[in-house]
Amino acid sequence: MRHRVKGKKLGRVTEHRNAMFRTMVTSFFDHEHLVTTVPRAKAVRPVAEQMITLGKRETLHARRQAARFIRKKSVLRKLFDEIAPRFADRPGGYTRIIRLGWRKGDAAEMALFELLGSEHQPAEADRKKSKKPAARRAESKA
Questions:
Q1: Which of 16, 39, 111, 131 could lock onto 12 through a cystine, CB 3.0 to 4.6 A?
Q2: Separation of alpha carbons 19 and 15, rounded Å
Q3: Which CATH number is 71's domain given?
């Protein structure tokens, strides 16, 4: 039984898992979205939401607590100056996980992990890439 056991191990030792979360959260706040596997997105969601809650406090102590986790100063500044004020009136639930399908190589279920209010628009190059396989299939049928 898993009574009072919090979080998933994700097949990693503690130090590796913490480093992975630290990197993912930093990248997430830098780009405001992240494409990853569903279990990783579910595991990193509480950490990211806790960082936003710290950002909403706007105290020196909260900034130092967040700086222990987010090591990039530019991302820390963005969290406290841009991201946290957006959610000032919201009591929680700052992120969303959208399932994208399965990865081709190992069939891992992929997800888009994003902040509410900053919906990810794929770049024009990404749209062109997604159309190429359909065009190739049409040529091969003809």
A1: 16
A2: 6
A3: 3.90.1030.10
